[in-house]
Amino acid sequence: MPELPEVQTVVTELNRKLSGKKIVEVSVRLPKIVALGPGTLPPKRRAQVHKVIKFIKLLKGQKIKSVTRRAKIIIIDFYGPLSLLVHLKMTGQFIYFRKSQLQKRVRILNKPTAPLLSLPTKYTHVIFTFTDGAKLFFNDTRQFGYLKLVSDAELPHVRELQEFGPEPLARAFSSQVFENILKRRPNMPIKQLLVDQSLIAGIGNIYSDEISFRAKVRPARRVKTLNEKERHAVFAAIPFILKKGIAAKGSSVGDFVRTDGSWGTMGKYHYVYMRAGQPCKICGTMIRSMKFGARTSSFCPKCQK
Length: 305
Ligand SMILES: [Zn+2]
Fold this sequence. Notes:
Elements: H1 4-18, E1 23-28, E2 34-36, H2 49-59, E3 64-70, E4 73-78, E5 82-87, E6 92-97, E7 105-106, E8 117-118, E9 124-130, E10 135-140, E11 146-151, H3 159-162, H4 175-184, H5 190-195, H6 205-214, H7 228-247, E12 288-292, E13 295-299
Helix pairs in contact: 1-7, 6-7
The structure holds zinc ion.
């Protein structure tokens, strides 16, 4: 699942590529992937044709002002009083091609055996065409992602935008803020605290494992057992690891791709994530994994206490 560094990579690239562009055409190939208004989407989504027609009608002619994000939600802001909120969830992807690039073929599944495909593929659910002939494709193999169009007046009422904890890369995320979060969950394993979106925004499985490794604490350690030095090590590791992920343009260990269809390179720098059974890059000890409910966490039993 794309985490903060992957979403930030998409946002930075789309903001550069889309700002000032005007939409001339919208094609919705999977109706349940789009939504209107601030309401939360039910787990079982139904396609509503009249909503799709309205979605297309509202977006045609809109000019993009900026692309930003809150936590893992991408916010495409238009000059008109509208914003398009996009959650990539597990496997959502945005790929942007200029008119001259439309014949390009990309590997949208991250397997060495995955075929090179031209867009749209059967996983392309929404296509935006701009006045200059460029196209933006939204692909999603597992179809958990969504594109939700809201008016600026509705924006403060979008629940998923209110439910997040602080942005870990914001200046306001101080050691005091982090200490207060830890105090609220003394019995929680540190891994679980790091991935809880209501406590800190944007960290998931990849980066929580890498943060724990850098801080030299095991993911299962309960918050109250961390000494001051360890708490500070976790706090310092959060921006360090997230910035490293952004600099590498994200990790394509999952099906994440950049907006030109290429892969992020953070995967090369993982110390523990998805490396169970391989030797630790620092001490050579075999990396171990353990289950946390539905999640698997990896750690070095020697480097991490
Ligand atoms: Zn080690």
